[in-house]
């Protein structure tokens, strides 16, 4: 839809992020998944700007060997003539947008010191003794600033430029663009405040204390004064300031000194199946793969009925209380007690997937999996042998009765099967962590303290997997999205979560999910939907309940879920999948359109 502020001038949108062609963290998902919807609206007038890291870009970037005559191509050529290494090409994702990537090695230490001196002189931004990452972002920010300045100087008479900056890491050049009155409309989006992330995990009752924090004092205390100041400057100097949720907007006022103009919720690029049963089939297929892992991990010690087993999981970066891992484990301990009290024959296997330093996968876990594979191969050989001999016997027999199948198995295979099974079985409890951690952490301590150590009588089993799941992983042989599809429920009752992609990734794959009202996603769901629980999205109240009350609420949700009939769970998966479209970027892009229009309107003299 054409903006009411449009003039005869062409508009060109630059999206600036550290994560362009650079897969580090959740903002990569935001930018990358949004590309098709942006290209649909802007076509060739959409260009992404990012840092150039040769190794990371290799898989996703296709260079344009000779810069074209477009405004972008001309500006790339000009920067190269000035001695900067600038890469220009296409991002190999759906939509194939043009990208400009800046090689940070173009700026030496002397020049970096000059840039830092100017940042101090213009904005009192202290950059003494900062970590290397901050130095890299300052180089990146200055090259972006120069690029946009050259672009606007040469072409702003014919083109209206909009530059959308994501996070402090992309934004060190934004304040000077405003100071120099460069003809570009600017938007700054914070996806999470630096201080919020630090304080939420270190200050009990963070939200209650929020209005009383002194941002500067806290930033110095946590050693992030430079990052927090860049974030604050960018928020204050941009024409339009936005964040991803109302939850984060509350922090912005305190830490960044400005209320966001707009909320820009996050979406995904969603491909729906034409036939509803298709995603249910995928669930069954990937659940079988998880069954294989569970048999290898648990059945050497004891077995349980896989037809009566539910797979729950949680995942994300290792922030023990921010991500609600503590609440999840507490609720699981209560669920375990209730299921045992009720004499239930159901089993819940809970996967805790996060990233922690480890030395290797536990050799016993790998060995057990390898022996299970050998048992499977032996059984397949026996099956083949029995099948061939049974067919021959049946065809040549005058008797209609089924022959004794034991006679069809060679002694070799009998012995091999018995030996493999014997060497596989053990009296040890199945380990609750799959890798050898460098050191004990909050997760292992809590699991032991709650005695969720995979006793045979426990109805809730724990698998703590301190590495992200990828298809190269020898334990599962699944990529993360396939693993999600194979599970029954995603559990993410975060205390601090500016948006929260993990529950949204469940929804789009037809998997019911637990979120919280302190996560941007949970808050958004409560605003746009009345019957979210009926549709398989459970929202834990962490805003007004204490830890104990929230743990009880979560335990109740999990207990109700475990007691559901299988057909009710299937119906719920259909209902969850049917609302995925709400979160498609083609629907959520309109929030971005509004921000870009507002920036252009405010930029106009």
TrEMBL record:
InterPro entries: Glycogen_synth
Presence of the UniProt keyword Membrane in the record: no
Coiled coil ranges: none
One GO process term, biological-process aspect: glycogen biosynthetic process
Keywords: Glycosyltransferase, Transferase
Database matches in Pfam families: Glycogen_syn (PF05693)
GO molecular function terms listed in the Swiss-Prot or TrEMBL record: alpha-1,4-glucan glucosyltransferase (UDP-glucose donor) activity
Domain of life from the UniProt record: Bacteria
Entry annotated with the keyword Glycosyltransferase: yes
GO cellular component, one term: cytoplasm
PANTHER family: GLYCOGEN [STARCH] SYNTHASE, GLYCOGEN SYNTHASE
Name of the protein this chain belongs to: Glycogen synthase
């Amino acid at each position: 839809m054409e903006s009411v502020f449009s003039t005869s001038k062409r508009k060109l949108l630059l999206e600036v992020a550290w994560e362009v062609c650079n897969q580090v963290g959740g903002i990569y998902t935001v930018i990358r998944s949004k590309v098709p919807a942006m290209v649909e609206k802007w076509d060739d007038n959409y260009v992404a700007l990012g840092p150039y890291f040769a190794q990371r870009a290799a898989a996703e970037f296709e260079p344009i060997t000779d810069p074209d005559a477009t405004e972008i191509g001309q500006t790339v050529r000009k920067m190269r003539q000035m001695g900067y290494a600038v890469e220009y090409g296409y991002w190999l994702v759906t939509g194939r947008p043009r990208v400009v990537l800046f090689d940070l090695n173009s700026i030496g230490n002397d020049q970096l010191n000059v840039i830092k001196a100017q940042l101090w002189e213009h904005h009192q931004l202290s950059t003494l003794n900062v970590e290397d990452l901050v130095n890299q972002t300052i180089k990146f920010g200055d090259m972006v600033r120069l690029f946009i300045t050259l672009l606007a100087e040469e072409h702003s008479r014919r083109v209206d430029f909009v530059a959308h900056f994501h996070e402090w890491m992309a934004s060190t050049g934004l304040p000077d663009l405003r100071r120099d009155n460069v003809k570009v409309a600017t938007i700054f989006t914070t996806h999470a405040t630096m201080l919020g992330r630090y304080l939420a995990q270190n200050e009990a009752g963070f939200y209650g204390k929020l209005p009383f924090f002194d941002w500067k004092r806290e930033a110095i205390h946590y050693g992030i004064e430079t990052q927090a100041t860049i974030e604050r400057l960018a928020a204050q100097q941009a024409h339009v300031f936005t964040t991803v949720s109302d939850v984060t907007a509350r922090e912005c006022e305190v830490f960044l000194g400005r209320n966001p103009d707009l909320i820009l919720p996050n979406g995904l690029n969603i491909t729906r199946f034409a036939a509803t049963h298709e995603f249910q089939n995928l669930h069954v297929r990937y659940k079988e793969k998880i069954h294989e892992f569970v048999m290898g991990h648990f059945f050497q010690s004891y077995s349980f009925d896989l037809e009566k087993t539910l797979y729950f999981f949680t995942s994300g970066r290792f922030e023990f209380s921010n991500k609600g891992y503590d609440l999840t484990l507490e609720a699981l301990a209560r669920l375990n007690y209730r299921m045992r009290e009720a004499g239930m024959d159901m089993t819940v296997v809970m996967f805790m997937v996060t990233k922690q330093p480890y030395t290797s996968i536990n050799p016993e876990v790998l060995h057990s999996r390898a022996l299970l594979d050998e048992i499977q191969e032996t059984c397949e050989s026996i099956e083949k042998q029995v099948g061939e001999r049974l067919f021959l016997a049946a065809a040549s027999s005058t008797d209609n009765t089924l022959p004794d199948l034991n006679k069809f198995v060679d002694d070799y295979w009998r012995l091999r099967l018995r030996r493999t099974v014997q060497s596989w079985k053990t009296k040890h409890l199945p380990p609750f962590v799959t890798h050898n951690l460098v050191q004990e952490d909050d997760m292992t301590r809590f699991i032991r303290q709650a005695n969720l150590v995979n006793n045979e009588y426990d109805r809730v089993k724990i698998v703590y997997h301190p590495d992200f799941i990828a298809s190269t992983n020898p334990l599962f042989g699944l990529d993360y999205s396939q693993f999600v599809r194979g599970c029954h429920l995603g559990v993410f009752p975060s205390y601090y979560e500016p948006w929260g992609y993990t529950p949204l990734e469940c929804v789009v794959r037809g998997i019911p999910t637990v979120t919280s009202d302190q996560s941007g996603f949970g808050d958004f769901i409560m605003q746009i939907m009345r019957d979210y629980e009926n549709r398989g999205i459970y929202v834990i109240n962490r805003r007004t309940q204490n830890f104990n009350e929230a743990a009880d609420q979560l335990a109740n949700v999990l207990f109700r879920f475990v007691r559901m009939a299988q057909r009710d769970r299937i119906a719920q998966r259909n209902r969850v999948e049917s609302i995925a479209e709400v979160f498609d970027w083609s629907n959520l892009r309109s929030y971005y359109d509004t921000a870009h229009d507002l920036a252009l309107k405010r930029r106009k003299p």
